[in-house]
Design a protein that fits this description.
Layout: H1 2-18, H2 44-49, H3 66-71, E1 99-102, E2 105-111, E3 114-118, H4 120-124, E4 128-139, E5 142-155, E6 158-172, E7 177-191, H5 207-219, E8 225-240, E9 245-262, H6 269-278, E10 286-292, E11 299-308, E12 312-320, H7 328-331, E13 333-338, H8 341-362
Antiparallel strand pairs: 1-2, 1-13, 2-3, 3-4, 4-5, 5-6, 6-7, 7-8, 8-9, 9-10, 9-11, 11-12, 12-13
Length: 363
């Protein structure tokens, strides 16, 4: 009995130490870095209870005004110069798909660095013609171009031909300045007597008169042949103020020429004598002469101001030449151009600017 009482006294303190009553348990808050039962701060109830942050230094960001957008308009006189823009006195060709309508005719960029052209006015009057230009290669700032042209005038038994060929080199010295130079060869020849008018004027010419005149020429043994050849050197410089405005200086000189002519192998003596009086140097109805010329004997020197708008090119200037007004066509030109990669890119930029401007106006 005594043993049971002692065991009961020892067990009661041990149970009290191992399982304290629930009301005596006290939870301490977790220390830094420990995970506790904390309410999530991103719950809607927590966000609603947070105070709003004061916007003391915040400022409203305004868009560009219409006047500022007008200032940013992509105008050609504000864009850098394009050294490959000119194609008539340089080694460059029209861009693929680009068209040029001008005084010299119609030219079209048929392939990359290849352009073809014709003069429809001459075609209309019966002088059929065509030309081609190839930008052969480009090595850094240096380009080399080849040109060729052909004109033909058939009038019955008469055939007139004019052929040209040349090579031109262009060198871009800087963003604003380029120089160009080349050699041009030309040959013109005619054979026979006209026995028919151009197709355009066929109904305006009395063909019976032409037949009578041809019969008289045949009776005299007249069967003319003429051929002239010549070479010229060319040099040019363009100074680009911007993409629209530039100064162009050009010069060319005739350096060599040859003339071959024969009015017929069976001309009567009295006809040969009369022809010799009219054409000095013509002996026995034929002539074959050639000569070399200095640069000052036959030259054309011009200075022009070039304005290249988006579609219209205008060149105005003056010049000097021993032959009266020989400089007019070289110093002055007008053309309309459209198509090509560069102009399409400019048009796209302008359309984007216009859309942005309209959005500003609506807002």
């Amino acid at each position: 009995m005594l043993r049971l009482a002692l065991m009961f006294c020892l067990l009661i303190p041990a149970v009290s130490l191992a399982e304290p009553p629930p009301e005596d348990i006290v939870e301490e808050p977790p220390l830094d870095g420990e995970i506790g039962d904390v309410a999530p701060v991103d719950s809607p109830e927590s966000l609603a209870d947070l105070p709003a942050a004061p916007l003391i230094d915040a400022e409203r960001v305004e868009g560009l005004s219409s006047s500022q957008y007008k200032y940013l308009k992509p105008k050609r006189h504000l864009l850098p110069g394009n050294p490959y823009q000119q194609v008539d006195f340089t080694a460059y060709a029209l861009e693929w798909g680009e068209t040029k309508l001008g005084v010299a005719g119609i030219h079209f960029g048929l392939l990359p660095r290849v352009q073809v052209g014709t003069n429809p006015v001459l075609d209309l009057v019966g002088i059929y013609n065509g030309n081609v230009k190839v930008n052969l290669f480009r090595a850094g700032p240096v380009d080399l171009g080849l040109t060729g042209g052909y004109h033909e005038l058939p009038l019955g038994d008469f055939l007139g031909q004019y052929m040209t060929g040349g090579v031109t080199a262009s060198w871009v010295l800087s963003e604003m300045w380029s120089v160009h130079g080349g050699v041009q060869y030309a040959s013109v020849q005619a054979k026979g007597l006209p026995t028919a008018p151009p197709a355009l004027f066929k109904n305006l010419v009395d063909t019976s008169m032409v037949e009578e005149w041809k019969a008289e020429a045949d009776a005299l043994g007249v069967d003319p042949y003429l051929r002239g050849q010549g070479t010229a050197v060319r040099a040019a410089m363009d100074f680009r103020l911007n993409r629209r405005d530039s100064i162009v200086i050009q010069g060319q000189a005739f350096t060599w020429g040859r003339l071959e002519a024969n009015l017929g192998e069976e001309l009567p003596d009295y006809v040969q004598e009369q022809v010799a009086l009219i054409v000095p140097g013509l002996s026995g109805g034929s002539v074959d002469q050639s000569a070399h010329y200095s640069l000052l004997d036959a030259y054309v020197l011009t200075a022009s101001y070039q304005i290249s708008w988006r579609r219209v090119d205008l060149r105005i200037g003056g010049g000097q030449s021993p032959s009266t007004l020989a400089w007019v066509l070289q110093a002055n030109d007008a053309s309309v151009r459209f198509g090509g990669k560069t102009r399409r890119h400019e048009a796209k930029s302008k359309r984007g600017w216009r859309r942005s401007k309209d959005d500003i106006a609506e807002n």
